[in-house]
Amino acid sequence: MNAGNEKRKYGQWSEIYIQAAIRVYRGGNIGFNEVCRQYRIPKPTFRRHLKSLNVHANKERKILGRSCTFSEEMETELEQHILKLESIFFGITITEVRKIAFEFAERNGLKHNFNTTNKMAGKKCFYAFMRRHPQISLRQSESTSIARCKDFNRANVDKFFDILEKLVDENALTAPKIFNVDESGFSTVQKRCQKVLAKKGKSQVGVLSSGERGVNTTFVCCTSAAGQYVAPMLIFKRKRMVPGLAEGAPPGCIVQISDTVKPTNEDKVLLILDGHTTHSRNLAAIELARENGIILLQLPGHTTHRLQALDVAIFKPLQVYYDQAVEKWLREHSGQPVTQF
């Protein structure tokens, strides 16, 4: 193998030998070259230690490479700053962290090797920082509206649970009598395609879909705190009802209610739902619920992304399995698109 292609080896010397060699050399009995030969220390390394140019020369452990620009206290401060920004929905990107590191070093008058043209730290510096602080990870962010940020606060959440506790105590409600309802839309075109195996290096991999734009069907789900499910309701985007739409639907779908709980004014149930106008502003629905012993409790505005259990735990995996079923059906029925039927 060509000597020029050999990987350079670092750290072949011992820190103990370094200290012993320095004492011998300063004793004046042996010359510089002989000390390096006897103690097997590279001459440049020994020279740096003699001139006290190596900032780690007096440390007990051997540290290779450039020294870190920031102290441990400074890095901890930077770490807390990053986590604080994320907690208030202002998470920063890799590029922004690198720029902050440059500004931080400049403001504190630290000697650094950062890029002064782009005014940011290097990528190697960033990844080294991430290795030293494993509690920080790179995550895909989700857009959250300003209204949600403002309304999802301790006061609103505490108020909701205070009302919930009061209703449960006043009406002696148990888990089978506390229900949660929500709806979600499902399209004939899958939202997320699964990862598939393809030839290495191929940049674009296609998966069949029923069309560019699909037709949405609304799925209404209702479940109790005890894990009992009411038969779901399917709302199709059509003007006329066709019997074939219900083919293959879950038993009792659309018209049947739960066989376990039959609410009355003497034996009431609690129904938790979001504040959509079709729920909270529909007088006919409110009156119907009152007549049948159903207590309606609305979730605080703009908090369903955290408090709506069906949104958080049910609909996302359901959507994933639905998309998988659509892809499987398209593979098994070549050339046939998915429709509402």
TrEMBL record:
Matching Pfam families: DDE_1
GO-annotated cellular components: nucleus
PANTHER family (UniProt xref): TRANSPOSON (PTHR19303), ZINC FINGER PHD-TYPE DOMAIN-CONTAINING PROTEIN (PTHR19303:SF71)
Organism the protein comes from: Sitophilus oryzae
Subcellular localization(s) per the UniProt record: Nucleus
Protein name listed in UniProt: Uncharacterized protein LOC115880815
Gene: LOC115880815
GO MF annotations in UniProt: DNA binding
Primary location class: nucleus
Residue intervals of the DDE-1 domain: 264-332
SUPFAM superfamilies: Homeodomain-like (SSF46689)
